[in-house]
Write a structure and sequence with these properties.
Length: about 140
C-alpha cells in the first residue's frame, strides 16, 4: 500500500540504504524536506515501510514550467527487485501530473539509471561525481 508519509517516518531508511547507516537521523534530513510543496511517499509491505521517495518543487536548467526534484529513493534490501520502487515512482508521476507539474528530475546514481529509465526518465547530463557517493547523471521525465 502506498501512503503519503512524514519525513520523520523515512529517515532511518534514508540512513540505512543511502548513507550506509553512517549518519544520525537528523543528518539525513534534506534542507528541502519541509518546504512548501514537498511531499514524501512510502510503500508499505506487510505493514512495514519498504520503499521511500521524496519530492519538492525545483526547476532544473532550461526546462520550462513547474518542475519537481525526486530525492531519497530507496528500497530496503529484502524487498528490492520486486517492482515496489517502480510502482512508487509511477504513483508519484501520476499524482504530480494531477498537480499540473510539467516535469520531474533527479540526480540519479549511475547504478540506478536503468531503474529510472524503466519509469520513463532519460539522461540529460554528462556523468558527474558526487563525492563519497559516486558517479551520477541528471535524469528527467516530461509529464506534459
Ligand atoms: C534503486 C532502487 C531504489 C530500486 O528499488 P526497487 O524497489 O528494487 O525497484 P524495482 O524492483 O521497481 O526495480 C528494480 C529492478 O527490479 C526489476 N523488477 C523485478 N520485478 C519487477 C516488477 N514487478 N516491476 C518492475 N520491475 C521489476 C526491474 O527490472 C529493475 O531492474 P533494473 O533496476 O535493472 O532496471 C533500489 O535498488 C535501492 O534502494 N538501491 C540502493 C539505493 C539507491 O541507489 N537509490 C537510488 C539513488 S539515485
Amino acid at each position: 500500500m502506498i501512503k503519503f508519509i512524514e519525513v520523520e517516518d523515512l529517515l532511518s531508511i534514508r540512513n540505512d540504504v543511502l548513507r550506509e547507516g553512517r549518519l544520525t537521523l537528523d543528518e539525513c534530513r534534506f534542507p528541502t524536506d519541509k518546504i512548501v510543496g514537498a511531499f514524501h511517499l512510502g510503500y508499505y509491505k506487510n505493514d512495514e515501510l519498504a520503499c521511500i521517495v521524496s519530492f519538492h518543487p525545483q526547476t532544473y536548467g532550461e526546462f520550462t514550467g513547474v518542475g519537481y526534484q525526486l530525492r531519497g529513493m530507496a528500497t530496503i534490501d529484502k524487498y528490492r527487485g520486486q517492482g515496489l520502487g517502480n510502482q512508487l515512482v509511477n504513483f508519484a508521476l501520476t499524482y504530480l501530473r494531477g498537480q499540473k507539474a510539467n516535469y520531474v528530475w533527479c540526480n540519479a546514481r549511475k547504478k540506478a539509471a536503468p531503474f529510472y529509465h524503466n519509469t520513463g526518465f532519460e539522461i540529460v547530463s554528462t556523468e558527474f561525481d558526487v563525492p563519497g557517493i559516486g558517479p551520477h547523471y541528471v535524469m528527467y521525465v516530461k509529464l506534459k
